[in-house]
Every structure is written in structure tokens, then in C-alpha cells.
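Review box. Two proteins, two foldings.
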Amino acid sequence: MSRGLRISIGQHSDRGRKPVNQDFHGALIPAEPLLSLKGIAVVLADGISSSAVSQVASESAVKSFLTDYYCTSESWTVKTSARRVLEATNSWLHAETRRSQYAYDRDKGYVCTFTAMVIKSTTAHIFHVGDCRIYRVAGKALEQLTDDHRIIVSSEQTYLGRALGINPQIEIDYQALQVEPGDFFLLATDGAYEFVDHRFVSTALATRADDLDGAAKSIVEEAYRRGSDDNITVQILRIDDVPPTGSSDILGGTAELPLPPLPEPRALFDGYRIVREIHASSRSHIYLAIDTETGETVALKIPSIDLRDDRAYLKRFLMEEWIARRIDSPHVLKPRSRSKRRNYLYVATEFIEGQTLRQWMLDNPRPDLETVRGIVDQIAAGLRAFHRMEMLHQDLRPDNILIDKTGTAKIIDFGAVQVAGIVEAAPADAEILGTLQYTAPEYFLGEGGSPRSDMFSLATICYQMLTGELPYGAQVARIRGRSDAWKLRYRPASHDDRAVPVWIDSALRKALHPDPNKRHEDVSEFTYELRVPNPAYLSTRTTPLIERNPLLFWKLTTVVLACAVVALLALLHAR
């Protein structure tokens, strides 16, 4: 039996000496594939005593998190998913207060503290606002992992500095830490941790390791016995096992399908009639086929025979359909909806009648500027669809873009796509998956990619459409260290007779900068500057040679210094 994430949870809550329990807690352990993709969530909220409705706030906060977090995109990281849910919950609670009779007294509105721990793969993600606490148990000691957002006015007066529902915006503390089998964590409200010492907690965990509910109850009862005058809630987590590094069960039964034989034209294949082979490469075979039930024309992508023993390749192949089903854009290839059970491993997608952008560039060697802008805008729209889902394409090139008969551009290959949520669940060794000439320099330096890396690839394609060449030639593919990146020399797009405006050339130069931090912040900013001149690019100030061509600058400097040394030696010799 393969190892996976397993935890044990114990919980107990009591209203204590108060008439109403304004604490609320919960936990959710989902089945696969959500267990690998989203993890296990444990949540605790504490209503404020001054409010008669804060128990509604704490219950709503916990329930909405445990429901909505698992409805967020599976491609998002835990941090992105949780923050989106908490921001929405905070807005709702604040709006409820504004609509209620407590609109001008937030201490009596829908307000609560909130603390959550999401265990995904081998990492614990902590989200915290307020004064509930999370401790990690280390032997007989407790290490506090959260900070109390409580403002101390005097020894007898304090108030919450942060909580859900107080303000329209919310600042949430976040941290991530590695977990191992045997780790214990304790979540508690102030009604518990202010009255029970660490020794009692560690003893309760040691003596009731097989009954965590009982251990939580004993801590609550001890807090009550020691005079707690608040609601009391305790949650205990024990990490029983974690998945091996790099494992992830996200594809379900699809991964168990057998690899298909390569079909012949007119053959029947899993409910499709093969028409002809469209494309063949070292990575895959693509066939035009017709669904025998619906008559729909589709494209079938089948794994390459040469790579069928390559597990990493097969994993990426399996991911392509998973990725496509989570992207919704008219400029990204759509997978075909499943109407029948599959018997082999392949991917069925819409069939696009058209040509690759590379072929289009051969057919249109000198396109007008507006046509280039239109194509770049469409590709950028497809890229933004990936980036919204926290995905990086990583292999954007003319061969991976189709132009159909209406002139619509579509991104068609997802074999190199990086999904943040998957990387978080199953980290993999960094490798360059894209085509070298279009790959951003940071990949060659082992720094990993970002949306700005995809923008570099898009700008390279734009430059190539305008000039018929690559901005750095083959230099990028030869980068082996940071000094090689510094030596990259951008060749202005206006170097020939194509009359590329200087301000567009400047926008390209920025998007193609070897340092990703000096590129545009977003793809949309780059495409905007292709249409609207940036005033900074229209300045008459001449760019210093050290910025335009640092290598030439230092060569000339060396020559000048050498000449000066020779002159000085000649002068000394003459004397």
C-alpha cells in the first residue's frame, strides 16, 4: 500500500461559564484527488464577547472556509485559495454588520477571530487573524506559532487589533512549515491557553495518544476547573504519515489506462474513425478522427512510442488534459467533452483547421504592424488565462500556436505547463522543458520561471514576426552562468528597412530584458505598450552606451586604458 497523507484529529468545545458558545471549529479530510491537491483543513474561530451575533460570524467563517476552499481551483496554491476565501468571508461579514443595527458599532457586529491550518503533502500552511493560537508540541514544551493580534492598553484593558469582519479589507498572517510523522499541533482559544499550562497539555497528549478527543476534552475541563470565564475550545492534530517527496495522486484511474497502438487511417479506435495522421514528432502522434456516434471531428493525441518507458514524460502527457479542462479561453485549445469510457491513454481535443504560427510567418514574411499586434493580443489573452490559474506555459513558440481560418490564434500544447498547486503538492526537479531559443534566461540560471518568463517568450515571437529573426540569435541557449546572461546583446528591431517604430522597439527591449525584474510587470502592460507609445520611450535623451551595449562599452574602455598606459610608458622612456 502506497504511503499518503494521514493525520489524527481530536476536538472539544464548551461554552464554559458563558450562556452561549461563540467558538466554532471544524475539520475536513477529503478523499483523493482533493486530498493531494488541496490537503486537510482544520479551522477554529472565536466570536468576540461584546457582540451578541459573533457566534454567527464564527460559524459562518468556519463553514464557508471548509466549503469554499475545496471549491477553489485545483491549480491554485494553498495560499492563493485560502486568501481568496478569507477575503470574501471578511467582505461578507463586514457587509452584514453594515446592514444590521450595529452598523456604527463594530464591536457588536459580525466579527470573529480566525485560525486555520491546511496540511498539504509535507507542508503545514497556517492562516491567522486574531488571538486564537496554534502551538507545535515539542517534547514537554509548546512552541507558539501564531502572534496575538491584541492591542494592550493597560494591564486590565486590551482589544483586538485584527479580526474577520471589522474592516472592509483584511490582513492575514501566513506561514508554511514542514511536517513529519509524529508531529503534534494544538489549536486553542484564549479561554483554554490562558488557563492551562504547557506541562498539563504535554502530559494529556502523552497519556491519551490513542484518544485525542479525550485529550482535548481533558484540557478543556482543566481550563474550566482553573477558573476560565470564557468559551473553551481545543483541537489536536497528529501527523501520522506524509507522502513521499514527488508523489501525487491527482489523475485518478486515468493513469492506469494502457498505452494504445498507433492506429492506421480508416481504422476504428475507441469509438473514433481515424482519418489521417496530422502531425508526428518525438513527443507525440496527432490524428484527425471522427466520433462515430456524433460525427464530430476531433484531434487525438497519442503518446510517442519512443518515450513510453519515460515516466516523467507520461506524467506530463497525462497532465495535458487535466490542465486543458481548467482553462477557459477562446485562445487556448479546448479538450473534447467525454461521452464514453476510454480504454486507452490518449487525449481528445477540438480540431482546429488552420496552420501553425511558424507556417504563417513563412507565408507572411513581412506582416503589417497591426496584424502582428492582433496576433500578439490573442496569444497574450491565452497566456493570461493560464496565469489566472497560477499556471506557466513555459514552452510558448510559433509551433505551439495555431491560426485558424478566421485568424484566431490558439495555444495548443501544454506538455511543459507548470501548475503551482501541483508543484506545491509534488515538488519536482527543475528542468528546461521549453524550446531553447524562446526560453527566458532565468531558466538557464536555475532560477525557475514566472509570468514574466512567458512574456519573454511572447516578446520573442513578436520580435520574430516583425523582423524575421530572434532578438538574441542563439545566444540565450548558450547561457551557462550569470555572466553569460549579462553578455546578451539585444539587436534593435529597427535595424533593417522594416521601419519598426522606435517606441515599439523600446517596448520589445524591455519585455526581452535578461533580468526578469526589469521587464514589464504583466503581459497586458507589454501589449498595451505595443499600441500606445510610452512617453519614456519618446525621450530625446540618448541611452548611454553602457546600457545599450555593456560589452562594447568595456571593450572600448579597455582599449582607451591600454592606449593611456602605452602613452605613459613612452613618455617615461623618452625621459
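Next protein.
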Amino acid sequence: MKNTLLILFSIIPLFCRFYSQEKEKDSLNFQLISLEEINVTAIRALKEQPFSFSNIDKSNLEPRNLGQDLPILLNFLPSVVTYSDAGAGIGYTGIRVRGSDATRVNVTINGIPYNDSESQGTFWVNLPDFSSSVENIQLQRGVGTSTNGSAAFGASLNILTDGISKEKFIEISTSLGSFSTLKNTLRFSTGGINDNFQISGRFSKIVSDGYIERASSDLTSYFLQTSFSNKNTLFKALLFGGHEITYQSWYGVDSEILNKNRRYNPAGEIYDENGDFQDFYYNQVDNYKQDHLQFHWNQIYNNKLSSSLGLNYTYGRGYYEEFNDKWYDENYAFSGMTSFSNLGLDSISFENQVISGADNVTRKWLDNDYYVLTGNLQYNSQIVKMAFGFLASNYDGDHFGKLRWSRFSSQVNPNHEFYRNKGEKNEFSIYSKFTSKISPKLTGFLDLQIRNINYKVDGVLNGLVPINVSDNFAFFNPKAGMTYRVKDNTDLYLSFAKSHREPNRTDYENGNPLPEKLNNFELGLRKRNWSLNLYYMRYKDQLVLTGEIDEVGSPIRQNVGDSYRLGVEFESSFNISNKISWNPNLSFSENKNIDFYFKRDGILNNIGNTNISFSPNIIAASAVQYELSEKTLISVLTKYVGEQYMGNIDSKNSKLNAYSTTDINLVFQPNNFPFFKDIRLTILFNNIFGLKYVSNGYFYTFDDDYSVPGIIKTIEGAGYYPQAERNFLIGISTRF
């Protein structure tokens, strides 16, 4: 039924490019712009509202859009840190904002939540080359305004995909570069058909060997859309998705290997019974498909009243395959994955010998469906702006494991299933927002949201561990603030936002988590070309990253009681001359756990205020653009990230050193090139000084009570994800 549904809608000719940057002044085009954005403006911050945000449009993304994932393209925004498992920005990538990881960054696509309902993470590897179908993005830092889906606990990322284009075109883009990276993209648009219909789409293929050894990526994706529009009505149907096959690279390396061979990848190691290395397993891969079907109806009733209705179905399915080595598991990993008892198998008696485990190959599957209905009603006048919205969603996910091969096994059927559990999550939320002119210079803002979540998990986890979760949450999230117009183009704003968040699946698998609470205060001064923002985020029962990761590289979190983030952000854009512009930003912050408890050597101690993991105190970026000619633009992009701890106990063994990287981006766009409407040549040199740096890793502790009988000794360990040294990408884009 699922495949039939997807095939049915895949033959619907779907959707178009966005309105031109050079907007016509006629009323029809104004209506089209408004219609395009109705479904996202209700959850976006407006310039007169008291929040900290950055807007990014297609022109900001295109010069560096040569195959790297969207988080990497957003690397130079304020308070942002990005990382890549494979080291070169293709494959599994992540983003942190104000020290908050991806599970706490709310992401919506056309107003539809993209975060995975159970893990709350965002997996951009499932939507390769999605940047080629993005028209504009808003990144709100902090709680921000009410949005759809899981609450923003560090930031929200609101994405609007390509919109209506009157222009008919076919565009072919190719890029290649270091680590055997190759990207091919085909985009097309029919332009207007009978003045009302538009059809457009994209097909992409990306392959890369990765900076890390064997961290290969084989990625395909598509984006199709169709629309019907008249002066006041817009109907859209979108079908987009991707298929990723990536060789696992989420294990990282320890400090010794980092110094010897920073590109080493331990995934798939095979040892003999004496512990001598033999080879690597060839198919240690993550293989996942994800398809999204969206319908949107945007309606303008008059010059003050508009509405939107959105419907979404997401179908995800796939697995990761793993060779489980018996010698390594029994001597280092201790995962139990080679034990027959953990796999639900009987031991084997053979020539007076009992065999209770063996090398094997497993596949751990995820098969899920996600349904969403959203709607909003907006009223805008010169005095007041109001928005009322709702979300209703249902997530249904099956988790199960299958045994593909075993060196020895008892009587067992092919594809023996050794665990299965089911997760179901239902959410209903409503919000109302009011922006009102209190006086000619003072604007007030009020935002009220109610979220209701029901989450259930039932079945057996890997290792035949039973799991049973049944939790209900009801959250009230108020937000309020004021904006004062100091003078023309200068606004002073103050806001307070309260937010609550439910635990994710990994939290339940590792304990009995509590929901989180956050009080967020923002004070800022904003002008046309710069902004200064002071924030204070006070948490109760914050689920901070412990530094540890689970068997698939997902971060493990724990409640820490009281904690806070205090910081200041500066963002600006200056025209130094008619040819040179400069866009710097700078963030200073203090991120602390209050009265943090840690058990060392078997004794629980209050070790005082400690730094929150993965929260650098300084983050800075700079983009200098020089227009060499009307056809050529060169940009120098610099990023600095201060030192940070991967754990919460301020251990020097958990510290990541500060780093600074510099990229050079060159764009050449000749006019009147033969045979083509348009052609663009792009060169991107990443990390031109060849810095050997690490932007992400993990940290863990365990108590050794075996080496010395009667004495408990706390052992610390760390792993690192090295990022690529000097590398390049070259691209050419042609339009017919």
C-alpha cells in the first residue's frame, strides 16, 4: 500500500522554482509572493518581533552548494558549529546552535516538522542535495516563536522549498573534487502552463569516498512539485526524498590512532581467534530510504485575512548492516552482539565443546510512517497581526533486527529475527500569536502554545531487553515581548519565552528521563545592517549530552538539574566599498551545569559548576566578498570555534582544542555565453591552510573494579571525528 501510494503520486507532475529575486511590482506577483509564504510566515519571526534570527536565501547558498549537506552550508551563521562523520561534509553531518545539538533544533520544511519523532534528530543524509531545492531559510536562535513539532531548545530552522517560477528552463549542474567526490544535478521547470499550472523538479546523484577511510557515500535524491495558482489561491503537491548508502564512520578514533593515522576507520574490522587483524567487512553500511509527500493549500481572502492547510506523509525504511567480531566483542566492545543468548539462539555442543557465540552479520531495521496535518489563519492590519495555528501528527515506527549470517549457529531460519519493538507517538498542538502597535514606537508581542504528546514503546530491545514506555505530556509554552523603535531602522527588543520538551527514545533506553523546562530571556538592538543580542537560557532538568554515544553513534543524554547558558551575539553586514563587503559575526557565552554530581572511584561528589558539554565559549565567523568584476566574485570565509569539553566533568581528557579554518569561494558567471541562457563556474577551497582539526567526538567513563580486587578506579576514554584537511570542489552549472 505504501509503495502504491508513492508510485501513484510520483507520476503527478509536481512543483516549481521560486519567484525571481527581481520581483515585479505588479499586484499579481505580490499576491504570488504572499501565497508562497503563507504556510511559513505564521511560524517565522518578523522584523518587528523580539527575537534573534538570521535569514538566508538561495543566493547565499548557491556559491557553495557543490554537494555538501545543508548544515555545512550554514556553518558561518552566528553561534553555529557543524561537523561531519566522514570528515568532508557529505554523508552524516550535524549542526549545533548555542551549544544545543540537532535533537534540540526544531526543523520544519514548508511548515511540516522534519525532526524524527522518536530520536528528535535531523538526518540530512536522507535528503542529499536538498539545498538545491531550498528557496530561503530562517534560523531563529533560542526558543523563538512557536513552531510545529518538537519544541526549540536551542534554535529552530524553518525551510521554504523552491516556489513558483514563470521561467521555463532546464539546468544541469556538475561538481567534482577531493576524495573522489562527484555530484550531478538536473533541475527543470515548465514555467506557467495556461497561466495557472507550474511543474518543476530535481534529480541528484552524489558519490564520495569521504575523508575518513572507507567512509563512502552513495546518495540519490529527487524533488518534484506541481502547483495551481490564481490571484488568491495556491494549491501545491510535493514529492521528495532520497536514498543513502553510507559506509559506517560513526566510531571515531582514539588519541593514539588520531596521531598516527587520523583517517583510520575501525568500522568492519575482522580479527582471528588470536586477535590478529585480518580484513574489513565490505558491507558495513547504513542503507535507508525516505520519501515525503506534501499537499499545501494557501488562500488569501482579502488584504488582511489569509490561511494555509498542509498535509504530509513520510515513509522511511532501511537498516544498518554490521559485522560483529567475536574476539573484539569479548575483549573490547562487550556489546554481547556475538552471544547466542542475546540473539535468542541456543548454544551448540560440538565434540564435547559448548559454543555459545560466534562471528555474525546483523541488520537492524527501522520502518516508519509519519502523518501530519497543519493549519493556520492569519490576520494582518497596520495595527495588529494575529496568527492561529494547529498541528496534529501520528508517528508509527517498527524497530527490529535480523541475523544475516553466523559462523556457527543452532537450528535457525534464514533472517532470524532477534528483537522487535514498536514506537508510537501522537501529538496535538495549538498556538496563537499577537503582534500589536501599542504606540507609534512600541510594538507588543504575545505567543501562547499548548502541546499534548502521547508516546508509547512496547516490545524487546536488542539483547532481549524488554522495553515498555507509556508517557503523556501536556505543555504550556508562553512567549511575550516588546520592540521599541529608537529611531529609523533601529529597534530595541526584549522577550521572555518558556518552553518544555519531552525526552527522546534514546533517553528512555538509558534510564528514566524527566521532561525539560527552559526560561529564555532575550535583549537585543537591531539596525538595518547589524544586530546585537544578549540571551540568558535557564534550564531545569536539561538533558545534556554526556559525551557518550550508543551503538549507532547517537548521543546519550542525562538530566542534570539546574543549568544555564548566558551569551551575547553580534551579527553585521558592511559595505566597505562598492566592490568589497564584509559580514562578520561573533558569539561569547558561558554554559554551566550548576552543582554537578559525579561518581569517581565509587564515591559520589558535588564537583561544583561545570561546563556543559559541546558548548564552546567563543564562536566567530567572517565572510569578505570582493567583486573582481561584474562577472567574478571571490569570497574569503573564516570560522573560529573555541575550545570545548565533550563531557560535563571538565576533564582535560574530554577537551576539544579550539580551531580556525579558512575557505575561499570563487564564482565566475560570464554573460552571453554561447549555447546557454546562463552558465556559472564555481571553485571552493576548504580549509586552505590544511589545519588538522577535530570538531566533534565522544567521551566516556567506566568503573574498573576488576584490575585491583576491592578497589574501584574510574577510567576515562575519548574518541574523535577528524575533519578534512585542505580539499576542494569545482562546479559548473548551465541553464538552457
